[in-house]
């Protein structure tokens, strides 16, 4: 007893009795463009009327610079046409690699705008009025790696995208359909962001994501899912499903994801009944978010897990012996081979029906715990 007591003193523990609200969400990685200062958008006179395009800027040192855009002298491969109340995409010069068109009123892409721009690597069309992307317009941009189409009015995932694409960001649209075969040639795609759309269970089958052989991050948060989607590529490392209405996780669902390290399921309807005992025994998982669900028990976790978020559930008690992924290590073994201990370092339990103190058996199991919020 004396031994374990001094061990407890060794562990740095912060007991915080109450933590208000959610922590800030980590942003998925993916560099955003360097932004130049842009003039404020004028308010429309009538609510239904679009503001007029801004007057053309001063002549550029580049004779091919579209007058409605800005061509920075020191970045001859970048073209800034963002926040200019544009209705259509100007003719893009062939030297351009980075194209900024966000915050306009563009509702249609025309083939002729892109006829010369075969070297484009990056297009930002966030916050426009696109309802669809017509066939073939972007497909021949075979150097395109980043396509941002967030905050438009798309109803389905665009077809005919270039095979070079690595990041496709489609969040904050009204996407309710994923046409068959739409990803079939996107072998290089690493990131697919579909959060905040209208995707429901019926959209997903085992072929939905066919072709995505290298997908690492999939964001399906804030949709209409009640079930875990099928067909998710087994290559994913980061999988986000927050703010759906998922009630259960099928047996062995995560067996197919040997490299999954980061899983978010905050704000769903998960209950103990919906979780098979080994649901989260995912061999390489490091971070697991299960906050704001309806769990009454702490689920069983894998040895490597480092961060576990269980705040705002209905947990009444926690038994460290039962959830320990390994038999307790003796103090001697832990001192000599600390890497043998379960890796959990950070645990959030606030917003449940638990009261301090933290049970001793929890500390005896997770000897690397640095912080428990209860
Ligand atoms: C389009 O590309 C062709 C061939 O490189 C060039 O001759 C023409 O001037 C370009 N047009 C524009 C408007 O950039
Ligand atoms: C653009 O793509 C073509 C064909 O895929 C390739 O040959 C060329 O090197 C690429 N250009 C750049 C600037 O990456
Ligand atoms: C998991 O990662 C390893 C090592 O990077 C890789 O060899 C393997 O193919 C990956 N497995 C899947 C299913 O992506
Ligand atoms: C958890 O998964 C590991 C590795 O797949 C396995 O060895 C272990 O037995 C599992 N734990 C339980 C309690 O099933
Ligand atoms: C949570 O679970 C309890 C008991 O199982 C149930 O009565 C309650 O309706 C559930 N709440 C939600 C939001 O699902
Ligand atoms: C925790 O679980 C173990 C094994 O099931 C049991 O022996 C022990 O009494 C439990 N501890 C408490 C405090 O309920």
UniProtKB/TrEMBL annotation:
Localization per record: Secreted, Extracellular space, Extracellular matrix
GO MF entries: heparin binding
Keyword Secreted: yes
The entry's keywords: Disulfide bond, Extracellular matrix, Glycoprotein, Leucine-rich repeat, Proteoglycan, Repeat, Secreted, Signal
Region listing for Disordered, in residue ranges: 23-58
Main location: secreted
Matching Pfam families: LRR_6, LRR_8, LRRNT
Signal peptide interval: 1-21
Provenance organism: Geotrypetes seraphini
Presence of the UniProt keyword Signal in the record: yes
Gene3D superfamilies associated with the record: Ribonuclease Inhibitor
GO cellular component terms listed in the entry, alphabetical order: extracellular exosome
Family from the record: Belongs to the small leucine-rich proteoglycan (SLRP) family. SLRP class II subfamily.
Residue ranges with Pro residues bias: 49-58
Protein name (Swiss-Prot/TrEMBL): Prolargin
UniProt cross-references to SMART domains, sorted A to Z: LRR_SD22 (SM00365), LRR_TYP (SM00369), LRRNT (SM00013)
Residue ranges constituting the LRRNT domain according to the UniProt record: 64-98
């Amino acid at each position: 007893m004396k031994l374990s007591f001094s061990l407890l003193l060794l562990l740095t523990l912060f007991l915080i009795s109450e933590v208000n609200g959610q922590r800030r969400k980590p942003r998925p990685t993916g560099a955003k463009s360097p932004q130049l200062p842009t003039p404020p958008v004028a308010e429309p006179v009538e609510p239904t009327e679009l503001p007029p395009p801004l007057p053309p800027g001063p002549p550029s040192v580049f004779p091919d610079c579209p007058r409605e855009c800005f061509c920075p002298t020191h970045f001859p491969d970048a073209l800034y046409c963002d926040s200019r109340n544009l209705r259509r995409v100007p003719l893009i010069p062939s030297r351009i690699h980075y194209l900024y068109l966000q915050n306009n009123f563009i509702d249609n892409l025309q083939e002729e705008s892109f006829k010369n721009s075969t070297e484009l690597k990056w297009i930002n069309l966030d916050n426009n009025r696109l309802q669809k992307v017509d066939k073939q317009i972007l497909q021949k941009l075979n150097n395109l790696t980043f396509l941002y189409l967030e905050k438009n009015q798309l109803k389905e995932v665009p077809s005919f995208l270039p095979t070079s694409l690595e990041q496709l960001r489609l969040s904050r649209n009204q996407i309710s359909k994923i046409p068959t075969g739409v990803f079939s040639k996107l072998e290089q795609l690493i990131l697919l962001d579909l959060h905040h759309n209208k995707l429901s269970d019926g959209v997903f089958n085992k072929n939905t994501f066919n072709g995505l052989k290298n997908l690492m991050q999939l964001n399906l948060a804030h949709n209409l899912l009640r079930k875990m989607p099928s067909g998710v590529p087994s290559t994913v490392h980061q999988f986000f499903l927050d703010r759906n209405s998922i009630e259960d996780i099928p047996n062995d669902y995560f067996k197919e994801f040997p490299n999954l390290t980061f899983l978010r399921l905050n704000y769903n309807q998960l209950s103990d009944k919906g979780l098979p005992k080994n649901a989260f025994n995912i061999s390489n998982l490091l971070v697991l978010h299960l906050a704001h669900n309806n769990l009454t028990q702490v689920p069983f976790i894998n040895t490597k897990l480092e961060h576990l978020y269980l705040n705002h559930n209905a947990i009444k008690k926690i038994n460290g012996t039962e959830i320990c992924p390994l038999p307790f290590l003796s103090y001697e073994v832990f001192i000599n081979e600390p890497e043998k201990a379960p890796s959990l370092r950070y645990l959030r339990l606030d917003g449940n029906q638990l009261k301090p103190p933290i049970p001793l058996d929890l500390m005896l199991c997770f000897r690397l715990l640095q912080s428990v919020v209860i």
